[in-house]
Amino acid sequence: MNPMGISARCFTMAGSVTSLPSQNHSDHSLYSSNGEQHNTLIKTRGFMTHFALKPFRKNHELFTVFFLLGTALITLPDCKKNNDKSVTERLMNKWTLVQIVDTFYSTAPPQITPYTGKATDYMDFRTNGSMYSYINNVYDTAGYTYSEIKLNLEVKAHHYTILTLTDQSMVLYDPRYTTATAGYTATKVTLKR
Fold first, then answer.
1. Pure H helices in the chain
2. Domain boundaries, the chain
3. pTM score of the predicted model
4. Percentage helix, strand, coil, to 5, in the chain?
5. Taking Cα atoms as reference points, which of 127, 132, 53 lies closest to residue 89?
6. Which of 28, 43, 77, 182 is most exposed, with the fewest beta carbons within 10 Å of its own?
């Protein structure tokens, strides 16, 4: 009998299975009246008695292992080291020009003027705030500013929105929309590394 006055005995509906606990914190098997051991485990802890089926326990342990492995596999991608580069780290590089497309919009149908970059054409964004370029056999240097939060890039009179920026490609778009004139030119610049 434990201090709370609860007996550590187990009876089935038929009354033929009993436990034989003698101390707290002990494990006991159940025996039927004919002496056969049952696959039931009783654990007594203080005034509480816990029951568990031995075969279920093995399956339960297997389930627990698979559950923990599954949880680990799901959460590991979230725990990996963040190797993502910032906008600054991606932007400040030498980019090869793929294409510039100027589209003039007015009351008439849009006029599209594409320029396909040559192997020697580039735009080089430096850490000193200068952009060096060589496009269509013309060298140029200009200051630039950008916003990592808004993904904007300003070079000369262009106010680009950075549409795509990865380690291998960058796409810039300047709609140049204005209500002051009857027409405007939108510019899309595609670069690669």
1. 54-79, 87-91
2. 17-79, 87-192
3. 0.57
4. 15, 45, 40
5. 127
6. 77
